[in-house]
Amino acid sequence: MTPEEMAGVREDLEAFAAELFDGFFRADQRRWGQAYVRGLLLDGRRKSVEPMAARLGEDGNRQALAHFITSSPWDPAHVRARLAWRMHEAIGPEALIVDDTGFLKDGDASACVSRQYTGTAGKVTKCQVGVSLHLATDHASAAVNWRLFMPASWDPASPEADADKVARRSRCGIPDRVGHVEKWQLALDMIDESRSWGIDIPLVVTDAGYGDAAAFRHGLEERNLPYAVGISSRHTAHPADARPVQPAYAGTGRPPAMQYPAPTQTMKDLVIAAGRAAARPVSWREGSRPGKSISGFKRMYSRFVALRIRPAGRGVRKTSDGP
């Protein structure tokens, strides 16, 4: 956002920020909270305090902004809750999206920087990763809760701990109680927190980065939340009509567990086995490419196969007739 664009919306932005920071006891906290929001929105690659203060001009004070971020006592969860309430009212969400974003880093001063995969770069690289929840409709979305992911190398209790990274924890201001938590568990924790704020979640959607975790899917089921999640085509399963059988018991030792008579298949192989005739065309919305429709844009369209399956794997819960 350019300074000219900022000037055009500043009054509305200040009213919005005042609503977010209304719970702050001190006027200076509310003032520098609003300034920090403007600094984040202004154009500029670096979003650290010093360059933001410079872009804010007469409204910028590096020392005051730094104090607001690093030392001033305020509860970020309270701010996120207010944001979630406001966005829930404004958007009327149809779904809650679980996602993560990579923040590419060159230096070593930031917390939880490690070589890890991020879809932002499409590869393993040096970055931070933030897990986030977004209220969404087909036309709008807003991030309303987020966590910084801590790689196992930053956790002194982990077998994968890296001595150099552990030593940097105190310099980064990381509390001793904070350790490595899997991304899918961070997502469940944030879902619980968001629901405690009174946020209604009609549907949870996410990609295979979370859908591949059986424990994440079980967590959503335990919370009675409907979901539509991606899974990798390499995941294995049995056809829906498969049933486990009891192998013959030799009469000594523990009776053998029930087993499926046929081996598992990958999701890709199950879809291929269903055949082209099982695919159904689905058009779900207009895209951005020019087309011949009334609106002038092509509709987004593909063919889909709906299959009932029995998931396989150690993390999958069993019922009386199998997974």
How much strand content do the residues show? 15-25%
Percent range for helical residues? Answer: 25-40%
Mean pLDDT: 90
**Distance N terminus to C terminus?**
51 Å
Can you summarize the main beta sheet? 6 strands, mixed
| Series of H and E elements | HHHHHEEEEHHEHHEEEHEEE
Count of alpha/pi helices: 10
pLDDT < 50 runs, ≥5 residues: none
Q: If you compute it from the alpha carbons, what radius of gyration comes out, rounded to the nearest whole angstrom?
A: 25 Å
How many strand segments?
11
CATH class designation of the largest domain: Alpha Beta
Compact description:
This protein has 323 residues and is of the alpha+beta class. 33% of the residues lie in helices and 22% in strands.
Structure description:
The longest helix has 18 residues, at 3-20. A hairpin with a 4-residue loop joins strand 3 and strand 4. The strands form 3 sheets. Strands 1, 2, 3, 4, 5 and 6 form a 6-stranded mixed beta sheet that branches. This protein is 33% helix and 22% strand. With 323 residues, the protein is an alpha+beta fold. The chain has 3 domains: 1-74, no CATH class; 76-81 and 91-230, Nucleotidyltransferase, domain 5 (2-Layer Sandwich); 236-246 and 258-311, no CATH class. Helix 1 packs across helix 2 (27-41) and helix 7 (183-196) runs parallel beside helix 9.
